[in-house]
Amino acid sequence: TDPALIRNFCIIAHIDHGKSTLADRMLQLTGVVEQRQMRAQYLDRMDIERERGITIKSQAVRLPWAPTQGGDQGGGAGATHILNMIDTPGHVDFTYEVSRSLAACEGCILLVDAAQGIEAQTLANLYLALENDLTIIPVLNKIDLPAAQPEKYAAELAHIIGCDPSDVLKVSAKTGEGVAELLNEVVRLVPAPVGVKDAPARAMIFDSVYDAYRGVVTYVKVVDGTLGKRERIKMMSTGAAHELLEIGTNSPEMTPADGLSVGEVGYLITGVKDVRQSKVGDTITQHSNGATEALGGYKDPKPMVFSGLYPLDGSDYPELREALDKLQLNDAALVYEPETSAALGFGFRVGFLGLLHLEVIRERLEREFGLDLIATAPNVIYRVDMEDGSEHTVTNPSEFPVGKISQVHEPVVRATILAPSEFIGAIMELCQNRRGVMLGMDYLSEDRVEIRYTLPLAEVVFDFFDQLKSKTRGYASLDYEPTGEQASDLVKVDILLHGDKVDAFSAITHKDKAYAYGVRLVAKLRELIPRQNFEVPIQAAIGSRVIARETVRAIRKDVLAKCYGGDISRKRKLLEKQKEGKKRMKMVGSVEVPQEAFIAVLSSD
Ligand code: GDP
Ligand code: MG
Fold it and tell me: EC number(s) for this protein (predicted)?
């Protein structure tokens, strides 16, 4: 295809603002999906995506479109253009993937719900798009809704982007109103891709998806040159060579082609079995006489949040390992290693990009692999400097070093919160409680603000978003990006049962919060642990200093004492009942703890 006839664009939108529905309309209007095959949210393939309404993996679809009016760009009025719609994952955890899919585009539709206005995540992605020099087409969706306020939000968008309110398009993805005009505007406004036709090929990987039958399917944008089928290619970050078994485009099903050239977007298959061999952000070139300089931007995904995952039933451990192995084939960011906990048995310490990533993986393990899991409270990575000059990296609180510590560093993020201005006080209070430092505040319109804070990541990963939502009646939206680390006054709090440390409950907290954490956990455990034959002290301690204590009193009478006389069958029943109850108990040192206690304590509240 002549690059002048190509338009590569993406849609940036907050969850539920109608991206999938708009994509559906575009598929229909351009005729790539016939009416009778149409089902809602055609492109959202993964079940979990459909149910939670989030897009985890980006995809690209090729749409032929002949502008119906005023489109005399490229090949002249009415010429059929190729629009490549590149779907971007919307969530904070996948910022790097988002920025790579943006880099494959020249333009972007900024889609905002006309009854809601722009949200923090959308704003963050808009800034990413601007950094990538994309042409922005602002669009308000859902104008059919009675609650829509297109004029108000057009003014808001115009203010943010610096355009005229009349430049903001108004559509209804539901009824289809305005969608053809939007496609015309994509042709008119989005620049055609530019690249060097006769140079060695350079193609950027913006997504990599594992398919059980075909192996890894890699999505690329060809920037320079041409990639042909059966060619030998090279991954520039590692130098690894592969043969191109298939190359083609999605319209929307995979359609093989002879090759892809300048500006084209499509997929390729090399037979690799693991997405880590075909990483997002990497550059592909020919194996011999290939390009020498990679396209910028490659970065290894780095886990930010860790949690211990344990099977509820210890005998499921091998299945858990297999399931993690399988998920990793499709997720270059998922890392894990075996871990043993005195309280929870055999499991894995798993690293995630963020909280949503954690939730998605956990849910997939439970749903797709039928595993029942206990997850320990999520924690971040700490860097600990010792007075003797040694340095430790801590991904599990129970491994926090003992001895003379000179400094502890924790990761920090820059958080952006958008909310109606009536909630400013509540938001500031929450951020202050989470050790936040305010960076600034701006009014987006007369009644909506953008508030910026520096916050320790550890304070964000633990129920921050839930709190924010509940304090703003669901109106606030949050985005955050890692900005480095800071030295903080952090300590490890241990929980001891009858003198034995319960590793799963160890936590690293700020010194000022250690006491509250200790008191809360100790009180909770006292309620959950049944009486034993002996008195069980429950303590919270920093090092050897006890900061909170409760006691579970001993059982005074033997249960069997109640069964006076010779009622053997009743006695047996009682004994059996007791045995059954025991099965769900875990021994921590000499204390029996019901499994429910772990689950109850580890689930945040
Ligand atoms: P996404 O999360 O951005 O992909 O949003 P969806 O496309 O899944 O849409 C979220 C919800 O909004 C769904 O219930 C859609 O039916 C609805 N929706 C999307 N576009 C419109 C629209 O133009 N008008 C109305 N009334 N509802 C819409
Ligand atoms: Mg969607």
Answer: 3.6.5.n1
